[in-house]
Amino acid sequence: MTPLALRVDPGAEPAPVCRLDSPPLSVVARPPEWVAPGLTRKMAAFLATRPATPCLVVDLDVVEANYHALHAALPEAEVYYAVKANPAPPLVARLVGLGARFDTASLPEIDLCLALGADPAHLSFGNTIKKARDIAAAYERGLRLFAFDAEEELRKIAEHAPGSRVFCRILTDNAGAEWPLSRKFGCSPVMARDLMRRAADLGLEPVGLSFHVGSQQTDPSQWDHALALVADLFRGLRADGLEPSLVNLGGGLPTRYGRPVPDVDVYGAGIRAAVARLFEGPAPRLIVEPGRGLVGNAGVLESEVVLVSRKDESEARRWVYLDAGRFNGLAETEGEAIRYPLATDRDGDGTGLGPVVLAGPTCDSVDVLYDRADVRLPLSLRAGDRLRLMSTGAYTTTYASVGFNGFAPLAAHYV
Ligand SMILES: *Cc1c(COP(=O)(O)O)cnc(C)c1O
């Protein structure tokens, strides 16, 4: 890892360490200029240099614009960026500069944020599955906010991060999400109520509850359902003598792929209205943990066509093999759930479009990106052409294998 934002010339004055208590309005703040759907002027300029493929190009000004838009849509909420969506140092550094906080899932993610100047008081250890020694190491680094969804986890936290603030993740049903999270995380509200009391008994501070409505959540009303559950639980917990104050709204904010999604303002307004309607007494402190919604549309993945073929002369559908696939960045095509918009050098060349199966370059038959999705590409497409996958800023670089079949992980450039 090269925390490049912190590298200084040996001869130069050391950069002042700057801890931000209140977010500055902006760091660079030039709004991104979109020149085509999914493509900014900066991305286009970088791609014009014909970088080696496959590669991801991320325009950090888009991340910044998304951050400001979310902050404007939900001004009461503290924004904890879910680092796993894209942990690139330049991206995290930009967010540190903007005053963002960070939802981390592991010790390396914690250390990454700290190395780039984040305040440990602004990090949450949001994974509900943590080794005891990682909890201890996080506590030693100054983290005091931890997630849990089980009694055993609470006991680990009580022993290795004594007195910390904890929040319990509850199960929600994830309807409407294009990338649902199943039942892996969270516990039932009934169990959550018990565990919150247990947390207090163990000397921890049970500050509140969290949920995740499922990633790429295209239905803003899903937060209403989850918030109703949480408001109910708040009443129960108060009756038990606890003082819950924190509502962690999780992630789930969508990015624009092919189909339009509601604007972030719609999500913000819906959440604010639900909180005002459902919660009695003092307004809860809100946390939001965007991953995809903050970085998805900031990236474009440039690939090269390696082969265009047919399985038989009689078949109309061509197979188009790219140098990017399931194993080097495009894991979220699993189940064809996430459908990245595509663009090629030959779009609009007058040859017309024909149906294709789109596949990656490895010798594994699961390395097929889109088969059922009815992808259509120019009939003139051939080996050597470039094909772009838009809105690939989230869940791509780190979802690459270390070198399956000898293909390197996805290269990435931050501009
Ligand atoms: C992954 C994750 C997120 C981010 O989810 P998105 O759908 O990408 O916004 C937020 N919170 C937690 C706890 C997560 O694990």
TrEMBL record:
Keyword Lyase in record: yes
Any one annotated GO CC term: cytoplasm
Catalytic residues (UniProt): 363
Any one biological process term the GO annotation gives: putrescine biosynthetic process from arginine, via ornithine
Broad enzyme group: lyase
Sequence positions bearing N6-(pyridoxal phosphate)lysine: 84
Catalytic activity: L-ornithine + H(+) = putrescine + CO2
Enzyme Commission designation: 4.1.1.17
Pathway membership: Amine and polyamine biosynthesis; putrescine biosynthesis via L-ornithine pathway; putrescine from L-ornithine: step 1/1
Source taxon at top rank: Bacteria
Residue span, Orn/DAP/Arg decarboxylase 2 N-terminal domain: 62-295
Gene3D superfamilies reported for this sequence: Alanine racemase, Lyase, Ornithine Decarboxylase, Chain A, domain 1
InterPro entries: Ala_racemase/Decarboxylase_C, De-COase2_N, De-COase2_pyr-phos_BS, Orn/DAP/Arg_de-COase, Orn_de-COase, PLP-binding_barrel
UniProt key word rRNA-binding: no
GO MF annotation terms: ornithine decarboxylase activity
Swiss-Prot/TrEMBL keywords: Lyase, Pyridoxal phosphate
Cofactor(s) recorded in Swiss-Prot or TrEMBL: pyridoxal 5'-phosphate
The family this protein is said to belong to: Belongs to the Orn/Lys/Arg decarboxylase class-II family.
Protein name, entry field: ornithine decarboxylase
Organism: Roseospira navarrensis
